[in-house]
Amino acid sequence: MKLNKTYINTALSGKARAKVLIIYTGGTFGMMRNEQGVLAPFDFTNILEHLPTLRNLALELTVISFDKPIDSSNIQPEHWQVMADIIEQHYLQYEGFVILHGTDTMAFSASALSFMLQGLNKPVI
Fold it and tell me: Among candidates 9, 10, 44, which has minimal Cα distance to 24?
């Protein structure tokens, strides 16, 4: 599965309080209306233009997104494995992790990942 990575420093002074990894799998949260009025995935590189209040958090963010966002009704166990692998591979580099996921199967994914990531000492939201 192809993944895209975007780095964003929201700290106005340049010094971030913490490093957080965001994993975007799909869902409306990462969509914007295009010229035709259709919801389409947006480029996280420009997230501060759309959510300028993120600067108040003073975080160093990295966004890893699935190249082709997945409708959460199509999430499968192999996608859970990819999410868990991403966290494992980046565990030492970040203080916390946020998974952006569609709502249709969010409860299933959260349950599966809670078992797959047992024993972590860092937050996964």
Answer: 44
